[in-house]
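Database export, one record per block. Field names are fixed; values are copied verbatim from the stored entry.
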Amino acid sequence: MKPNLLFYFLLQILVALLRAKAEHGGAASSIIFTTLGRLDYAFDIFSLPITEHPPTMFDEIQITDGESVNFNGQFPSPLSTSSLLSLLPNQTLVQTIFGVDPPPLQVVYVTERDGVWNLYYDVVIADNPTSENARRRSAIEVFDRVQIPLLGKKLVSDKISMKDKPNLVGNHVVYVSTHENTGEPRTSWAAVYSTELKSGVTRRLTPYGVADFSPAVSPSGTRTAVASYGAKGWNGEVEELSTDIYIFLTRDGTQRVKVVEHGGWPSWVDESTLYFHRRGEDKWWSIYRAILPSNGKISVDSVVIERVTPPGLHAFTPATSPGNKNFIAVATRRATSSFRHIELFDLKKNEFKELTRLVSPQSHHLNPFISPDSTRVGYHKCRGDGNGRKKPKLFLENVRSPVSDISLFRVDGSFPSVSPKNDVIAFVEFPGVYVVNLDGSNRKQVFNGNAFSTAWDPVRNGVIYTGAGPEFAPVSAEVDIISINIENPDHVIVKKLTTNGLNNAFPSPSPDGKLIVFRSGQTGYKNLYIMDAEEGEKSGLQRLTEGPWSDTMCSWSPDGEWIAFASDRHNPGGGSFELYLIHPNGTGLRKLIESGSGGRTNHPEFSPDGKSIVFTTDYAGISAEPISNTHHYQPYGEIFTIKLDGSDLRRLTHNSYEDGTPFWVHKFLRPVNVEWPIDRPRCQFEDLHWLKDMPGPSYGFGLLNKAECGTKF
């Protein structure tokens, strides 16, 4: 780079940093947070052939490239392929890769790379999968790959959001995005958009005031079906969303009409037939068919609904192939397995045909899709360490931040906090408290009991506070505040600061290190107390709040003036939490933010300058059907910041996962990933806990037999 250009480049960086500092009134800093299970995913898209013979591990091929997280794919139709090919760099390349035998695999899918969501198109040329050498491998051997992001840099960088469920329609891609603020608390930002591939021109297809999920475009491209809240809004469900299915014209979102009450994840087989899932009155997740009238008005009353899959197992996220009325693909959860698998359901014989359990029985397989010619089924699963290139697990994953002077990171641990010297992170595993250097080195367990939340003493070097005992426990549970002194790593000192055992938790020290604020259930309700940081309750307690509610998750401001906390005092026991501020002397109590009806704002943490708070919340509602993901206790948590006067509410993260327990680091961490320097296990995430619950006979085992499948309900 020429010297004058280098000077100009550095000057631009300096100007940007100064502008950011002036805008936000403080030095650059970072926020770290936990996303439940996310750093274990390592998803890739795999495929199996659909044949008469049971598949083996040699039949499965890995399509995507093993970079980051790749999921929710679609095999493009011939109608869409010509538009996609126009995106390839040159026609010579097109002729080369499409002149091979066998034809290349093509897939459109969601990918998260460097903490950014995008939609990608991959053309993959591979060894002949029927060759003798290829059959000795379980993963595809690629000798050429063309990979193109479908959404331009402006749509990805300027409109940071979750992108999901791509559908190709000619020269357009239809998908879900969360980049537009609804302006209302606890309402989902998820909406369906259409982007023209060449120009990047984007049109919103979802009406404002409505949330749409899981779009599916009909074979002709004329109509799009979605799972939608309509005007009902989200009432806090985390198992099955109370969605209805609407259809509308793909070109502009008009002629929108509800066709199914109570249903999700629609999938078309022809212009008048679509499949969907829902949990029936017998409590089984099952697949249903909706038949639209060929003429006349389309409405809920004119659409015929038939149940397709029988009780006795959970079946969901159906996939179809245009014109194929012989079979569908579904994800299942059987009582005989702890894993989610992909199966085919024969619509003529009313029988299931297992696929993925025969290939990798100890892996979860999600969200199937079928090729247009019905010869292949695709899905995503964790690639593990045996497929593709082995990549180290991340300790810190950088997430693209919408705020220029704040870098964001997911951390591989719960309840993270950073030491006053900004060199060591403390975090929780269940059980145990651990410390690790910011580069991922020197990981050590410093407490082997169950604990939750961590906070460093700002004055005494190497002292960490936590609540030792069971998490998510009732007010009478035995939990006590302890200090863990790790100044001498060879002689860790653990000291109990409370002894009553009545759910004492969430300690936060004052900036001078003399006091600790914490929550306690010693009166039968969870209220806030203050005690000496070294002597604990022995030197007496100052009761800060009092009332028949739960005040919890407290944080002391850097200037010592405020304590922020979460509370349900506006509706005791109702499950809703909002953020409050109070002075340490008990004066000045005020609410900081409204959560919306029944909403939750939790885990407040002050910025280094004490002028803002970071917290986790369901303010932005839910972003995807929970059943399409793996387990998250709260699949709606996102990271937000707000100033102490209640202004400048900012959303920092966009996804369909559970983001929580943020910590505001008092320095700027370079926005790059940090890998574990040690080998860490992958793919340790769990499937949805509530899918383990198999309804008993009282819920109708045998309600449908083979002959009864397909009858009208």
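Remark 1: The longest helix spans residues 3-24.
Remark 2: Residues 15-25, 129-142, 698-713 have pLDDT under 50 and may be disordered.
End of record.
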